[in-house]
From TrEMBL, chains A, B:
It comes from Artemisia annua (Sweet wormwood). Residues 450-484 are annotated as: Disordered. Residues 117-140 form the C2H2-type domain. It is found in: Membrane. It comes from the Eukaryota. The keyword Lipid metabolism does not apply. InterPro entries: ALMT (IPR020966), Znf_C2H2_type (IPR013087). This is Aluminum activated malate transporter family protein. The chain crosses the membrane at residues 65-84, 90-110, 117-137, 149-167, 174-194, 206-230. It holds the Pfam family ALMT.
Length: 484, 484
């Protein structure tokens, strides 16, 4: 209170003078000092954490580091055009456009870079051509009308192009091109009013942009390329594997106990729920990529999106399934034991199917075992349904058997309410299985059809010696083990 | 076969010469002509459909048209700087940068425009300042080292900035700034090697960019502004309403029949499932917007995202619920009748809660009725649970009662398997209700807390005359009716 009201505490000393006590003041200073120190420490901790996170990000995927180095190198190379006089004189003052192109166009994936490069070149060419044409018309219609014609054409073209960006297809494929189109048109038409040798300007701009884009395309395709198509191709089966693990862990958690690590894996389905945007952007840029690795130019990337959507529909089910875990303790042990094995069986056969599908996509080879795996899953569904059918017998169950085995056992009725959670868990599990069968299997089948996946080894060479067949089946086991 | 092998059919005429028959050829020509006609018609139909779709897009939301006109106007105005000699001489040759800024920076929403403008200005300023500093150091360390120092600094800064774009926070808030930073740094440092009056260049560039950005900001904020924050604020309750309708229609469909229009509404939850990306991008740009309408500068947009995520978690449940519709015909009528009213009751009280929450967000006024609505929902859950408890009595039900009422009725046991679908439907419904209560209500409560929503009318003025109170309750009824 003293410090707040500005009251001073003093002691009257023997000689009559008073000594002012300043502990408050000192404390305040110290408190401010502590506060400052805390602030500084907190600031540096935050900065440190930020850098640590960034570093982890790079260590997690070193290609991100490489990408940064690539951008640096490309920029260095292109600025050479400016430093070296002979090149500079050749290309002229607009060498700056080459630098700009590199900065703006260089993306993480090859597809992204190609998308921007091609959009930039085409849009620049088209807009330059149009601007020259309109400029020619304008200059032939008299000096008075020239600015009006140029201004009006600029207004109309800019508005129309801006509107076209709202159309989903244009947005996905030519968004960048639209920006560049307006940009180039306005630059050429505006400077056309001043600069006389317009053709020269247009030619210069186009050639510098081509230098920049070529450099970008070469760097991104040759030095540690990151193909968007390949990324998408790897993401889809990885997500399916995550779903399979989630399902397994969820059922294992319901009918028993799982360790901490499995609890983490249980959350895997969340990645699938949130993957839509990244899948779509990858597919959008993958279409621009040339043939690479095992993929042709017109690889059916759209089908990957369908597989992704089907995975997501399974993920919705699994998400609902996990919320059943809250009520697992209320279910009587007897009922759990009765349904447990069938549920575990269904989950493992479902995740087996998902793993097989993931493997199919991954290796781009049709699976010889997928039909059997689906059949297994169907049988597991039937088994679980049978177990559900015999549930009423169990609901009227012997009571206190251990206490007195000779006395005829009393019968207790397990109320339906206690059974409902596990019954709905089981029917959600069946629903998941049916979604896998109806959506996922079909989507992968469609993908295999349109991407012309290879036939499985043992179908192509049915009369092989048993030795090779053994190796194949061993491999199958290995992946199955990895999945478990 | 004839045309394929190139064989000619001819008739020997009386005078010995032969006349070649050309019906194949004629037919082929006609077929080609038909094919071409078909192609052209199809092409124009596609073009026509494309334009029709585009037009519908604009009619659907006329603000998109306005946006295009705004861009056109802004570009026209900025190109005036170039056409008018006095202004041109004032700003100099780099007036072109103002044009460029307008093209690149103008976005659909005010937030998007501000985000780009502020990023552009700050990044340009920072990079220009840095480039000047490095240039000064380089020029003082001798002519020989100058290009090396400049090149190396360019390499390091470009790589580091590119890397920082991988960090999610930087990506969300400063992505555009990073691009502009690299761009400006490389432009200034590269041209610094040639142009002597660097300061002049930097100053010119900055001033033109400021002209461009100011024009953009003013145009986007004054002429028919589209606020990202407002869009987000309207989207969230709209999605909740869609969810409520979906839930109602789904339950109504299960226990009865619905018309075509309701079937469309049943699909509403899909919008919610796919809304994540757009919600996030809106919240990202909304943070840049100044106070507008009922929103302050630091309006808690993040809380809207939480409400959105909670809506989505309900949507997952409803998605699973809709897949139960396939099995609705297998459930015995008696069981349906038994549970129907409780389920309908629960769905209508759940959708009532969602509607109340949507209304709360929409009007930014805490609802006086929300507690009662939640209580209603809880009671409906209890009612449904009670009905589920009495289900076993029904499962052993009188058979063929109508045929002979005097004879003691035979008893039939409805097998548990027939009941399972409806039981799991009911428990999914209960799960949906619990998600609404635990996630959605809490998220909206949190939002109301942090955004300081108004207190409800009847709490603020408890001693009003009954007349006003009646109007308030009438309004409540009206919105409830609209929801239904």
């Amino acid at each position: 209170m003293a410090s707040k009201n500005g009251v001073e505490w003093s002691i009257r000393v023997d000689d009559g003078s008073s000594v002012v006590l300043e502990p408050e003041h000192k404390y305040r200073m110290m408190r401010i000092w502590d506060g400052l120190k805390g602030l500084v420490v907190r600031f540096f901790t935050r900065v440190w954490m930020f850098f640590k996170k960034a570093w982890d990000l790079g260590v997690d995927d070193p290609r991100k580091f490489f990408h940064c180095l690539k951008v640096g190198v490309a920029l260095m190379v292109v600025s050479l055009f400016y430093y070296m006089r002979p090149l500079y004189d050749g290309v002229g003052g607009s060498a700056i456009w080459a630098v700009m192109t590199v900065v703006v166009v260089f993306e993480y994936t090859v597809g992204g870079t190609l998308y921007k490069c091609l959009n930039r070149i085409c849009a620049t060419f088209l807009a330059g051509f149009l601007a020259l044409g309109v400029h020619w018309i304008a200059s032939h219609s008299g000096h008075r009308f020239e600015p009006y014609i140029m201004g009006l054409s600029l207004f109309i073209l800019a508005s129309a192009t801006t509107f076209s960006r709202f159309i989903p297809v244009v947005k996905a494929r030519y968004d960048y091109g639209c920006t560049i189109f307006i940009l180039t048109y306005s630059l050429v038409s505006v400077s056309g009013y001043r600069v006389d040798d317009l053709l020269h300007v247009a030619h210069e701009r186009l050639s510098t942009i081509i230098i920049g884009t070529c450099l970008c395309i070469i760097t991104s395709m040759v030095v540690f390329p990151v193909w968007a198509g390949l990324e998408l191709h790897l993401l889809i089966p990885r997500n399916m594997d995550k779903l399979a693990k989630s399902l397994d862990c969820c059922v294992a958690d319901y009918f028993g106990h799982i360790d901490e690590e499995s609890k983490k894996k249980l959350q895997g389905y969340k990645c699938v729920l949130n993957a839509k945007a990244s899948e779509e952007s990858m597919a959008n840029v993958a279409r621009w990529e040339p043939a690479h690795g095992r993929f042709n130019f017109r690889h059916p990337w759209k089908n990957y999106l369908k597989v992704g959507a089907s995975s997501r529909s399974c993920a919705y089910c699994i998400e609902t399934l996990t919320s059943c875990l809250d009520s697992k303790d209320k279910v009587p042990e007897a009922i759990k034991n009765h349904l447990g094995s069938a549920c575990m069986n269904l989950s493992s056969s479902s995740s087996n199917v998902m793993g097989e599908l993931a493997n199919t996509v991954n290796t781009m080879t049709r699976s010889a075992k997928i039909d059997m795996a689906v059949e297994d899953m169907k049988n597991a569904v039937k088994e679980l349904q049978n177990d559900l059918k015999t549930l009423p017998d169990l609901m009227i169950q012997p009571h206190d058997k251990e206490k007195d085995e000779l006395v005829p056992s009393e019968l207790t009725v397990v109320p339906l309410m206690d059974v409902i959670p596990v019954v709905s868990f089981a029917s959600l599990l069946i629903e998941t299985a049916s979604r896998i069968e109806e959506n996922l299997v079909k989507a992968v089948e469609e993908l295999a059809e349109s991407a012309q996946f290879k036939q499985p080894e043992d179908e192509k060479k049915p009369k092989q010696n048993s030795n090779t067949a053994k190796i194949v089946s061993d491999e199958g086991n290995a992946t199955a083990l990895e999945r478990v």
